[in-house]
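Can you make up a protein sequence with its backbone structure tokens?

===
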Amino acid sequence: MYEQHGLSKHKLHIVWNDIKTRCYNTKTKHYKDYGGRNITMCDEWLNSFLSFYDFCINNGWKEGLEIDRINNDGNYEPNNCQFITHIENNAIGKRRKQNNNKSGYIGVSYIKSRNKWRAKISFNKRDIHLGNHDTIVQAVQARIDAELLYFNEQRTNFTS
């Protein structure tokens, strides 16, 4: 079904198309990070740009803001999307769970020879050892505590 809305050149139409592309087009560069992780767009938005547009306009979008999924593993849907600045979006991205080590968290690694989780933090170009822990939860909490101490903010998101 084709929608006639006169908004095909609106910035939100580009955003809507970009979301659909990264969630559903297996040939695009970012598909692996979205569709490849089973992240989708809710049917209401997928089938109607006007529905997506209305949500955006009525929920804080303005020029200069970006759409962000509150739960990074969740879908593009009304209860999981917010609008934030590019700087905020980059900061959130840096705090989210990482996939470049076994723990998934910056500064937390598994030490197989000791059967322990090691936590560390870098501050003023120095690595600070935060201990070896029996569980990943303990190691991540040590990392978060150190972030609060050294940076006055939590930079790691963690849900057990």
Summary: The longest strand covers residues 116-123. The helical segments are 11-24, 43-46, 49-58, 86-95, 136-151.
